[in-house]
Amino acid sequence: MTSQIIIALLAAAVQSGTPILFATLGEIFTEKSGVLNLGVEGVMILGALAGFVVARQTGNPVLGFFAAGLIGGLAAAIHGVVCLWFQGNQVVSGLALTILGTGLANYLGTAFIGMAAPGFAPVAVPLLSDIPGIGPIFFQHDVLVYVSYLIPPAMWLFFARTRFGLGLRAAGEYPAAATAAGLNVLAYRWLGIVGGGFFMGLGGAYLSLAYTHLWTTNLTGGRGWIAVALVIFAFWRPGRAVFGAYLFGGIMALQLRMQASGTQLSSSILLMLPYALTVIVLVLSSWRKRTSDAPASLGINIAPAE
Amino acid sequence: MRVMKALLVLMLAVWASTAGAAEKEMKVGFIYVSPVGDAGYSYSHDVGRQAVEKMEGVATSYVEAVPEGPDSERVMQNMARKDFDIIFATSFGYMDSMVKVAKQFPKIAFLHCSGFKMAENMGNYFGRMYQPRYLSGMVAGAMTKSGTIGYVAAFPIPEVIRGINAFTLGVRSVNPKATVRVVWTKTWYDPATEKEAGKSLLDVGADVIAQHQDSPGPQEAAQEKGVYSIGYNSDMAAFAPKAHLTAPVWNWGVYYVKVVEAVKKGTWKPEAAWPGMAEGVVDLAPFGPMVPKELQDKVNAEKAKIIAGQQKIFVGPIKDQSGAVKVADGVVMTDPELLGITWFVEGVVGTTK
After folding, report:
1. CA distance A36 to B258
2. CATH code of A146's domain
3. I want to staple A204 with a disulfide (CB 3.0 to 4.6 A). Which of A48, A221, B73, B343 is the partner?
4. Closest Cα to residue B131, out of B298, B303, B252?
């Protein structure tokens, strides 16, 4: 492979990793508050539809992008209602949210299939995009990719350096102690769920507004589930989520490029790569006992106030 | 919880209401695997349905996005119980369900698209899409500068392999040194993956992108790179006006109207129908403005030969990828051979595995 092809591959890795990155960051945000949301796939696809429809109706993709976040937060709030108000099982509720979100988006979106909407086109960043190697890989994308660069450091700062961030983590680690310290754990968990849903919605919108400029049924194609696995791979750290998402995006892009460059390997084997990687990653992280990095009260509902 | 329940009830109510039908003389039902708005495969069938709808004394209805398997059986049974006279199921995976339902309702005419099974009241049909694919290959072969053409393809099944082969034969008829690189996506409809597959082909130097996929994802990839594309299913020019050279397209209305007329007259008999350009079931979409007039004339002349039956496309000598002669000089491949083809012709880069 020439260096040109490798650079194209890495640039493709960043782009195909971006929707997964948004969703993974969303799930990290939610899980840090102690709530497991397996509804990522459903929230993402609702976001993808909302972004597309709003961009189409208003002619403004930026509005579409934010609408996707809002609808994502709203969809995730269903999970909040079930788990925080009614103490429902988080696993079951999350799975239901995936099924509901996918079904609802496919139903509501039928009328929009095959239509055109304005979206984001690549914009090279001045100066930065001229750096050999780095420039074409990281700085010749659409604006949403650049937005996704800002979120991990911001999220890290939020968790490590702000009162709200610490409160959110306390709600996920030791809710009883947090309550004793006078924190409103329920409110923090709501923040975790709705805030996480916001990012998942953005991830969906990336698919319908930037990656392609189309809406169709099952547009997310299982990327939400990959995000769930990547949270564990990232040990719940926003910085590592970037690495995981690009690695994953890179493998997806690589298998297509291996085919394009005329490999004799079976395409079925190549298509297994991303999923095989997921399994390997999960096995490795549990083998290294890094699952103990999970928020201590993840998936455990807090007892309702007496 | 109450909100969820209300939502579910609402969804069910709306879903159920889509399966209604008007009361006229003859009822014709269509079952599609994807939504009709997909601008692709199901859309092309629905354009055919609309031609039937315009017929005197015929009412049509359709159910879209029906998953292959048990769900499709329920949909067919539902139509049959409502006294439909003809049911068209337009995806391969409906085949076994249709065989089952056809047995239970012997008075109804069942037609299955792209399969190979038949029954006393069930026929199958498909179109010779490889004919316009050959012509679109001629266009691609003449328009490429790099000599590398990309082909984004769904699944390595005979239908798709046949199309790639015909396309490549078309490419090489005008450009003997050009190669066609194939990338499998293993999906019929996933715009993001299809677009990425198109980009991966552009990265290895392809400057025309063709597709056997139902979304315009690969068209977008070609347009963004400023190169050319060949669509599929329906005229995809709207998605990539600067890139779209032409597209092999379906024109199902011709066939559907004929079948409905035959059933009306009582002359219909189950058969395995494989109509082509001569019958008008498949065609080539209008050329884009960038296709030179001489090339258009050349392709149109070849089209006339196909319609007249003088150009059979799969005529020997045909070599496979290793260069071995698979079809001897002057031999024409038979329909069963074409329907079961699993090897690539010379000039294709990629694997059928």
Report:
1. 57
2. 1.10.3470
3. A48
4. B303
Residues B8 and B150 in one domain: no
Which residue segment(s) compose the domain that B160 sits in? 130-247+285-349
pLDDT in tens, A6-54: 898 999 999 999 999 999 999 999 999 999 999 999 999 999 999 999 9
- Between A96, A221, A260, which is nearest B192 by CB? A221
Assess whether pLDDT exceeds 60 at residue A306.
no
**For the whole model, what pTM was predicted?**
0.84
- B185/B266 same-domain check: no
Do B176 and B323 belong to one domain? yes
Interface of B with A in 20-39 (CB under 8 A): 34-35, 37-39
Cα distance between residue A85 and residue A148, in whole Å: 32
Chain B contact probe: residue of A10, A56, A113 with most B CBs at under 10 A: A113
Q: How far apart are the C-alpha atoms of A224 and A30, rounded to whole Å?
A: 14
pLDDT tens digit string along A254-295? 989 989 888 888 878 887 887 888 788 778 877 776 656 789
What residues contact B165, with CB distance under 8 A and at least 6 apart?
Answer: B130, B314, B341, B344, B345, B348
Pick from A215-219, A253-257, B163-167 the range whose average pLDDT is largest.
Answer: B163-167
Instruction: Return residues 182-241 of B near A (CB < 8 Å).
Output: 182-187, 189-193, 195-197, 199-201, 203-204, 206, 215-217, 220, 224, 238-239
Domain count for chain B: 2
B278 part of a folded domain? no
Asked if residue A300 is part of any domain, the answer here is: no
In chain A, how many domains are there? 1
B220 → closest Cβ in A78, A104, A212? A212
Domain-located, residue A161: yes
Can the peptide bond before residue B317 be classed as cis, meaning omega within 30 degrees of 0?
yes
**Segment among A109-123, B40-54, B239-253, B279-293 with least mean pLDDT:** A109-123
Flag whether A299 is in a domain: no
What are the phi and psi torsion angles at A266 (to 5°)? -65, 135
Contacts of A130 (CB under 8 A, 6+ apart): none
- Complex prediction ipTM: 0.83
Read off the pLDDT of residues B6-52 as tens digits, 9 standing for 90 and up: 666 556 555 555 544 444 489 999 999 887 876 788 989 999 999 99
Interface of A with B in 199-228 (CB under 8 A): 207, 211-214, 216-219, 221
Residue B229 lies in a domain: yes
- Regarding whether B339 and B321 lie in a shared domain, the answer is yes
Contact A5 B203 (CB under 8 A): yes
DSSP codes, B99-130: HHHHHH-TTSEEEEES----BTTEEEE---TH
Out of B37, B65, B200, name the one closest to residue A256 (CB): B200
Q: Which CATH number does the domain housing residue B321 bear?
A: 3.40.50.2300
Q: Are residues B37 and B96 in the same domain?
A: yes
